[in-house]
Amino acid sequence: MKQPALYHAAKSVGQGIGISDFARYSSQMSKFPLTALAALAFFTHASAQITPEALTTARDEAYSDTVALDFVESLTTEVGPRQAGTEAEGRARAWALARLRGMGFANVRLEDYQMPTWVRGEERATLTAPHPQVLAITALGNSGATPPDGLDGDVVGFRSLAAFEAAPDSAIAGKIVYIGHAMRRSQDGSSYGAFGPVRFTGPGRAAARGAAAIIIRSVGTDSHRNPHTGNSNFPTGVTPIPAGAISNPDADNLERMMARGTPIRLHLTLTPRDIGQQPSGNVIAEVPGSDPSAGIVLIACHLDSWDLGTGAIDDAAGCAIITDAALRVAASGRPRRTIRILFAGAEEVGVWGGRDYGARHAADNHAVALEADFGADRVWRADFRLPDHASGVADRISAALAPLGISRGRDAATGGADVGAIAANGLPLVDLLQDGTRYFDLHHTPDDTFDKIDPAQLAQCVDAWAATLAVLVNAPERLGEAE
Hints:
Oligomer: single chain
Shape: elongated
Largest sheet: 8 strands, mixed
């Protein structure tokens, strides 16, 4: 592949040529997908010589690239919702295979598997006493079903999972349980880990303790009447009960009723069903490296989404980011290490794709793994889990990211769900943490749509990924590969 002019400009900057020459090369950049900042990442030892003017030029070129934005627009428009195991996820795989081949990636392929599949049905909830009102509700993944005409029951309410756990079984048996929580916005998304168990485990615990059904406050930070779906887990041997999430304003209203101390009754209709084993799969593509012994840089996202919105931020944006970044690096010439793109399937309903990849590719020579699955807003921090002898790699990545306003974190990188299986034995990881302040306003809701993508923030993400990849794929240090 022909190397873009800016590649040579970056190299020249690294060798001491003046910034005016760099700017002259930059003006030729419009015909190439590699942005200035990504190219410069190959030569981060020159970062001290880069002037603010050059960085402004680089930023403007980065933001003129619309590959990632076009990717999200196309996937959400032409496929839309992509619930795992459904025909729609199958259309997404076909779309992805064609897209990646059309972009020029090598070894584009499908690795399929079978998985149990749950689909939603009717969803209605009406308070019948003491103050009749309709609630905005959606079923949680793996929810059991009510009778076709619904069920009526007394509601017993708890403000938190801890309060629910502290209550005697006698207060729960036969009732419709409501569980709330106090989730708040956080840049790093840590509140999801703190309050997500209301959804992850609350329904299973309620079922095990004899509840007739459960509704929870949506695990989200918005104040719209959009309930948040998401998967729930019922322990082996526990029969799933009807389980739904109500919107945050409806939860507020219900809690105000609870505070009045008057008995509450609810009519609930949820009719999801299990449709048995269905096909899903992972889509894989590569940029082949020049040195097979140097290993594979695995970059991952998930292709499936929940069915309420069109899955723009979760996780079309992640797939767009890693694809655009790989294209930019490929445009500079053949990398030393192979870049492998993983569009994992069925993440939302149990990380089926990530686990399948881990089992199939356990013996592959992976050097490092990264994952993009936190929306489309800007990268603000980078964390690393690299061997001590590769500390210089983290230093060079940090230097390349600093002009984008990205700081170096002190925590060890943890990867993500879809690289979890392959990274379980200590594979090096890099995390590019995105701003999660508004992520849980949109997560798993009907509002997860293309119009929520901020093009400038998405472009910054791609530039950060391209700069990081550029260092990783050509680093002379040994990373995770065999000696």
